[in-house]
Design goal:
224 residues, 9 strands
């Protein structure tokens, strides 16, 4: 651990690297035991984070329902204020709820939702700024749950300690891609990380250690 944060990413995909069909349908690519693993992972962190695209498309609760354990806080990265106030992740259930947005974005959230305002970079928020802001908010164990674009941005920014990729033995043929990183010229330039492989019913979980390339995250910029 390079600082006092533990940053974990999670992605479920098909054998041909898709997270959804061409129509956007994604429930459920992975097996029920894979869903239980995800909920168990949620119960071990302080906060679960998703991008606004996933929040709109799937309207997830981001709660622990299938396994015993504490409910984590939950946050959505929404630079332009697109998410409706009646989104399930904003529901009042005793857990902390956070909106991560940018200065000037329209904000309409229920009472009790904490708002973190960060700088915009070409319409996005830098992953390191998000991680530092969550650190300032008291979070130490962070799960970046999706979607694929958000997770890819955190990987590319070297802001993850671990990455869990659960692969289902199905092929969707077309649809939303999984991890999408900047291209390399040569295959031998690719970072090879220590990896453990686990069987979860029919799915295969790749538990990848990215800590060797993770950048140090400092104190966040002022948030509100």
């Amino acid at each position: 651990m390079v600082d006092d944060l533990v940053m974990v990413g999670q992605l479920g995909q098909s054998l041909d690297g898709r997270v959804a069909t061409a129509t956007g349908h994604s429930k459920y690519i992975n097996c029920p035991a894979g869903i239980e693993h995800l909920h168990r992972l949620r119960s071990l962190v302080d906060i679960v984070v998703v991008g606004v695209g996933t929040a709109i498309a799937d309207n997830p609760q981001l709660t622990v329902r299938h396994v015993p354990g504490p409910q984590p806080a939950r946050a959505v990265i929404d630079p332009k204020g697109r998410l409706r106030s009646d989104a399930k992740l904003f529901a009042e259930d005793g857990a902390r709820r956070l909106l991560i947005t940018t200065e000037g974005a329209p904000v309409a959230v229920p009472a009790g939702v904490e708002i973190i305002t960060l700088p915009s970079q070409e319409g996005n928020i830098a992953p390191c700024d998000i991680a530092s802001a969550l650190r300032r908010a008291g979070m130490r164990r962070v799960l970046i749950e999706g979607g694929a674009d958000t997770l890819s941005r955190f990987i590319a920014a070297r802001c993850l300690d671990r990455l869990h990729v659960t692969v289902a033995p199905v092929m969707l043929g077309a649809g939303g891609p999984g991890i999408d990183l900047p291209p390399l010229e040569r295959a031998d330039q690719a970072h090879r990380m220590p990896t453990r492989v686990h069987q979860i019913e029919d799915d295969v979980l790749f538990d990848c250690d990215l800590s060797a390339q993770r950048i140090v995250l400092g104190v966040a910029k002022k948030s509100t």
